[in-house]
Amino acid sequence: MSRYQLIKRWTYFPLHPETPPEGQTLEDLFAGRDFDLEAAQERLRLLMEQEGLPYGNRSMTYNSRLAQELAKWAKSIGEEERLHHALNQAYYVEGLNLAQPKILLHIVEQLGLPVDAAQQALDNRTFQGEVDHDWQRSRQFRVTGIPTFTAGQYMMSGAQPYEWLEKLVQQAGAPPREEPPTP
């Protein structure tokens, strides 16, 4: 048995907390920066394609604060992974505005989760403190992008190929993966 254990933990990060509820175009978001939006989107599209994942051609960014609070609610009922998948699909593929409670509740309904409980969590901002704690933790770790992966004292940010993630955990001390024998 290995002494290494993989622990997957979602920590929420305020990527663009200043984004208004109606959203902002990606062009406006990156205006004045030395950033090639088309090249970045193409790189991400190719990475997603390599993994067999869908990716839409989105032109907007939206404030994700309420979606993060909803994800904390989903964690409390053991449904965090399913909700994350659905939220990513809604945002990155369908380009939906996840700052809108109506859209978030529709996603909850599509998953067959208790809509009334989700509505109550959003209305009362029940998980606001937990998301605030995550944002503070993100600042502590100096997270600047999503996703960010940590292993031991090492960190990698952004969508990266599997091989790079494997190197990250090896750098932190995990033994190299044993390759299956070739036929």
Question: Which helices and strands appear, and what pairs or packs with what?
Answer:
Blueprint: E1 24-25, H1 26-29, H2 37-50, E2 60-61, H3 65-76, H4 80-93, H5 101-110, H6 115-124, H7 128-140, E3 148-151, E4 154-157, H8 162-171
Antiparallel strand pairs: 1-2, 3-4
Helix pairs in contact: 3-4, 5-6
Walkthrough of the structure:
By secondary structure, the chain is mostly helical. It has two domains: about 25-145, Glutaredoxin; about 145-183, no CATH class. Helices cover about 50% and strands about 5% of the residues. It is built from eight helices and four strands; from the N terminus they run βααβαααααββα. The strands form two sheets. It has a two-stranded antiparallel sheet with strand order 1-2. It starts with about 25 loop residues before the first strand and ends in a 12-residue tail after the last helix.
Keyword list:
183 residues, mainly alpha, Glutaredoxin, 2 domains, two-stranded antiparallel sheet, 8 helices, globular
